[in-house]
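user: can you give me the structure for this one chain? tokens are fine.
assistant: on it. calling the predictor now.
[tool input]
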Amino acid sequence: MEIRRATLADLDILVPLFDAYRRFYRQAGDLSGARRFLEDRLVRGESAVFLAFRGGRAIGFVQLYPSFSSGSMAKIVVLNDLFVDPENRRCGVGAALIDAAAGYARDMGAVRMVLSTELTNTAAQALYEKSGWERDTVFCVYRYSLD
């Protein structure tokens, strides 16, 4: 398996994976919207995406958003998206993508990574906990919709 940072040249292979990720979370498929969204993030340097390959085929990705913590007065990284093609799950792909994400975060001087996942996504929770992530028991997460 190979893990490498995605570039604009990778959009054709990244878009279908990103669209499958969104459909997993019950969003309508939208390949052209996915392409625009990812292209904007990459062109503006607003996210870092790492792709996993096996046998020359893209089988997963992780998308990270650099941010800051006021309390820590330091950089943090939001692991916003992690997806592995269903045929390639439980083979270490997710863990390898998490390792690549952690390496990126360390290299940029971040003090921690944060993520959220659906309460019902127990497979992802098991992966995160096995990889050393700790469930937050101090802070509640809230959302405020603007649409």
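assistant: here you go. The longest helix spans residues 93-107. Residues 94 and 119 are 18 Å apart (CA to CA).
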